[in-house]
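At this stage, I wrote out one protein's amino acid sequence and its backbone structure tokens, and that material follows here:
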Amino acid sequence: MTKYCAVASMAWLGLLATASCTSTSAQPGNDAAAGAAGEMGVGGAAGAGAGGAVMIGGPSGLPIPPGPGGVAQPTGTPGNLHVLNWAGFKSAVTYTFDDAQPSQIEHYAELQATGAHLTFYITSGNSGDIAGFDTTFTQAVTDGHEMGNHTVHHCHADLTGCSTGAGATLDSEIDDCSSYIATHFGQPHVWTAASPYGDTGYDAPDMTRFFLNRGVGSGLVAPMDSTDPFNLPCHAAVDSETVDSFNTAIDGGHTTGRWLIFLVHTIMPSTANWYAPIDVSVVTGSIAHAQSLNDVWIDTMVNVGAYWRGQKAVAAATPSTSSSGTQASTWTWTLPANFPPGKFVRVTVDGGTVLQNGTTVPWDPHGYYEVALDAGSLTVSP
């Protein structure tokens, strides 16, 4: 079978599910699974969408940033809300793997051994041709990695250039892939996508289903920048690229405080060399390098991306002052369409009491409050 160049990424959950919510995205096969699973939030906390209870104050499931504990709660004048970049880390890195390739399955144990959570962009049309397809990617979901949508047959948006066959419509190419992930891998929902070939013709349909899409253009993402969330840039691995090259990219993102997204296709050694092969040591070695920096957040597209978009939503909110004479201020925000439930951001204020839905948000002695994005608002009172 002729194989192709694709674009993808892999990584999923890390769930503590206690709250239920209603799915707002029409993805065939997802809603039933999501309902049975309580539409759980990715990255830790119990999620809640429309009509669900909100878990206030965590646990958020976000990793603890470096630095001493025992930070005293601020006691100054209430106000001056600030959202920490990258959950309190200096920079972020996400590893994405396209096409659900045989070599990724062959090297899954080595990837898992790094301890990093990854994103696999699944081309579900490969499922019948690759040994261990369902078994490996089901285990990956169990291990906390994300499965993202890379369509069924890896076609251009006009349904040409497909790897094998083609769906009847562009919608079916997208929806049937999400359905496969939900029904075969145990991941109740699909939140992110990667357009085959980086084709921007997928942007419009993706906006009705997902909250992020990875492209193939080069670049980094800054905490509050205007990067298109449906054409996120990446560092696409090239044939025989070295670990030093990956490490240099990581160092660049770390120095500038940005989010670096890697795109990997074929992992060597393997007899299934499909496209842009790199040795497995490039991936594992660069992850070890990022981990050694101590203040780099390594996580999935859905987790880092939700923080990035959630931070911008909260930061854009304008506080309103209470008319009750208490001088409390409330910030209210609206999350993007198809945003995953159960996500948090970390904030600081100069003083006062932080509340959501009338409940006090506890101060975390690592130096922040964890704010539930599903609540849609927070209040700081004297």
Remarks:
- The chain is about 25% helix and 20% strand.
- The chain has a mean pLDDT of 86.
- The two ends are 67 Å apart (CA to CA).
